[in-house]
Design brief:
The protein has 80 residues and is an all-alpha fold. Helix content is 71%, strand content 0%.
């Protein structure tokens, strides 16, 4: 019987944490279920750290940044 109470308490706590995380996501504080960060962002972050230990990786990081800038600048003239 005691095991059933402990199991029930665990389920209730897990559900409460789920509801709390869903509420925080709805307010834009965290990413929980609906939106996730892209793996490219995480890869760039690790690449930034890796440039401290292997300077040749800095060239790769600079090239990625240049490509992003070119994509951003490739549009038409800005709206005024």
């Amino acid at each position: 019987m005691k095991l059933a109470w402990i199991g029930g308490a665990i389920v209730l706590v897990a559900y409460g944490l789920h509801r709390l995380a869903s509420w925080a996501e709805a307010r834009g504080w965290i990413y929980y279920l609906k939106r996730r960060g892209s793996s490219g962002t995480l890869g760039d972050a690790f690449l930034e750290v890796q440039t401290m230990f292997d300077p040749s990786k800095k060239i790769v990081l600079e090239e990625r940044r240049r490509e992003v800038r070119e994509e951003h600048d490739a549009g038409g003239p800005p709206r005024t």
